[in-house]
Amino acid sequence: MPEAHQINISHIATLARLKLTEDEKTRYAEQLDSILKYIDTLTKYDLGTVEPTAHAMPVFDVLRADDPRPGLTQEQALSNAPKRSADQFQIPKVIE
């Protein structure tokens, strides 16, 4: 592996609380190296004119417009309350 790609698989496994065999460590090191080599090939391209994006495809908001509209009055909101106290909902005590 090139110097820039030296990854301590044993340390990463310890951080992830994984017990890896030597064969697994070797296999994961090879896989990570191939991933990092592929990333190195991507750095060869000039992306200065490419606008950064969060998604590969355009994302359209399908929600309704956030237009103000009338809400409930206090009396309407409390009309179905099982118990009321001083124009507020009264609920059972949950903390002792």
Fold blueprint:
Blueprint: H1 9-15, H2 22-42, H3 74-78
Give a quick summary of the entry:
With 96 residues, the protein is an all-alpha fold. It contains three helices and no strands.
Structure description:
The structure is a single chain. With 96 residues, this protein is mainly alpha-helical. It has helices at 9-15, 22-42, 74-78. The protein has three helices and no strands. The longest helix has 21 residues, at 22-42. The chain is elongated. The model has no long low-confidence stretch (mean pLDDT 86).
Secondary-structure-derived class: mainly alpha
Which regions contain 5 or more consecutive residues with pLDDT less than 50? none
What is the chains' assembly state? single chain
Shape from CA axes? elongated
Spatial gap, N to C terminus: 61 Å
Helices, by number, come to 3
Helix content: 25-40%
Tell me the Rg in angstroms: 29 Å
Largest sheet: none
